[in-house]
Amino acid sequence: MDVIAACKAFVAVSGHGSFTVGAAAARIPQSVASRRVAALEKHLGVELLTRSSRSVALTPFGREVLPSARRLVELAEALEHDAAQARLRPFRLAVPEVCGPRPLAALVAGARAHDLNLDPRPAAPRRRAELARTLEVRAAVVAVPPDDGAWRVPLGLAGHTDPGDAPAIYLESLRAGRAERTARRRRVLIQAEDDVPHVRDRVRRLGHAVGLQPAQVVVAGSLVAAVAEVLASDDLLLCARGQAEELGLHWRPVGELDAARGYDVTARSREDGRRVRALPPALIGRCLGVPEGEPGWA
């Protein structure tokens, strides 16, 4: 038996002296109110109400227990109110700066359907981890090696010119020939989101292995500055396919390297981490730019 529901019916019926009026006040059918009061009487082993064809009245026992029943109903209503307020309280979540406004809005809207009122805080990788550690946010989507994460976003190289039928761009093709030694050398620009060891160091090691100069693989000061360089030159931006499309650039995978971003959720509170992980993975995955078929898409 649902004791709280039964007490609500008992309080409403006794307060109005009628099953019909009390049931209407409690927004339940009269037959349901009657069954619930009868179930409560059976549970307590004593009649709570005397019934006549036109009205009901409290029995002496009913008068004794009514205050307790009313307190239980009030506590239940207070709990429901507090729970509703808690669901509306903003849940600060640190997210990558590469998440666009529209995908972020879709994430917030989708999370509301799961009683989570997200307040996204875009930040660079190291800053996101710091925000979670110092409790400035309740949880953070942090950068991790792709094999260790819940989400994986493949990376490639994007430029302003269409590479045509080429299935990939090879870093080796950026190596200057003898006749080009004095010319400006094409660069690979790494944005802040990929300035993490499992991405940055792998690209730099590959560049060294294929004969690129150290200055040909650099971390850009900002995404805007990096894109400006790409638009004004033959430089290439390391990025995800979806990001390249948003920027109007032509993207291809790296021929010699399976580069990817990896993401997972971190939180100081186990419950906060659980609430974010309980969301459908695709809600966050699509915000991160996870393509169909990769971990975290569905």
From TrEMBL:
Alphabetical UniProt keywords: DNA-binding, Transcription, Transcription regulation
PROSITE patterns tied to this protein: HTH_LYSR
Statement: the UniProt record of this protein carries the keyword DNA-binding: yes
Domain HTH lysR-type: start-end pairs: 1-59
Keyword Transcription found: yes
Alphabetical list of InterPro entries matching this protein: LysR_HTH_N (IPR000847), WH-like_DNA-bd_sf (IPR036388), WH_DNA-bd_sf (IPR036390)
Protein family: Belongs to the LysR transcriptional regulatory family.
Name assigned to this protein: LysR family transcriptional regulator
Source species: Saccharothrix coeruleofusca
